[in-house]
Amino acid sequence: MEKKLLITVSDEISHLHGVRFVGSFFRNKAAVSATLFYVAPHASIAGTDRPRPVELDRKAAETCRAKAQHALDASRQILCDSGFAPQNVNTKFILRQFGTVKDIIREAKSGQYDAVILGRRGYMIFESALATSVTRQILDMEIGFPLWVCRRPEENRRNVLLCLDGSEASLRMVDHAGFILKDENEHAITLLHVDTGEGQNTEAIMREARKTLLDNWVSDGRVTSLVVARGITEVAKTILEETQAKGYAAVGVGRAGMKKGLLKEWLLGSRTMKLVESIEKAALWVSR
User: Fold this and answer.
1) Residues 6+ apart with CB under 8 A from 154
2) Which residue, 20, 26, 97, 233, is most buried by CB atoms nearer than 10 A?
3) Helical pair 100-110 and 120-129, crossing angle rounded to 10 deg
């Protein structure tokens, strides 16, 4: 089954981290369909909300569209240069309708994408949108798809670290990773469980996660299990240490629930809130 990815694009050409990550990460690019998505501000908000002459709005819209097209063309070229077939790379430009975050969510849901990829600017926009508890509650109900946060991933890294905490969210993340990785044989998978001494059944957690990968046709030889005994306050630190030591391309986590604060808490919960702001050379995959 083809993997459908929605990659958010901004006009920061030097910071197209999400685009570059996708181009570098996948070897079997024929099995991936990528849509490059640019949400532009409406021409009326470029300078003022007050009515303006039609020709000024038209000029602003043309300038905005030109910037968007330049960014989309550059992103498309990056993917094609990395080996994507042109027919597997689509571009889409819209003027902002309901707010950038909501427009991304609407596109992700209507297009039934398997993941939404956020570069540095996309991450910042999401974080800003989640600054209020009301907005977080609304978006928590709407975002049912995995997010890949690509702040500054290092290209050409291999392998994926999947972090397990026994929650349904982390198991859904494993299922997502299995679907993405089933025909990406160059990526080995490490299942990591940080045993905090809270009485969880570590063997059952690992067994269920491994079965989920096998059900996605990931060969057992690609999967390694790692259990580390650490204190409850050292979960994030342990994940970061493992990521840095092994140089993984991506780290997968399940979003345990909303906490007060910005995106880092909303995505991950209090135990691993440091991951989004600390992981730079690897992409962070987050599943609800």
Assistant:
1) 247, 281, 282
2) 26
3) 110
pLDDT at 140: 62
Instruction: Kindly give the pairing relationship between strand 115-118 and strand 3-8.
Output: parallel
Cα gap 268→132, rounded to integer Å: 17
What are 34-60's pLDDT values in tens digits? Answer: 999 999 876 544 444 454 444 547 777
Give the integer Cα–Cα distance in Å for 176 and 249.
16
**Structurally, what CATH architecture does the domain formed by 3-149 represent?**
3-Layer(aba) Sandwich (3.40)
| Closest C-alpha to 67, from 47, 38, 96, 45 | 38
Amino acid at 1: M
- Residue at 18: amino acid letter: G
| Tokens (6 digits) for 65 | 């569209």
How confident is the model over 134-172, as pLDDT tens digits? 445 544 657 888 989 898 899 999 999 999 989 898 999
For residue 187, the one-letter residue type is H
Q: What is the pLDDT of residues 56-103, one digit of tens each?
A: 477 777 888 899 999 999 999 999 999 999 999 999 999 888 888 889
Name the architecture of domain 160-287.
3-Layer(aba) Sandwich (3.40)
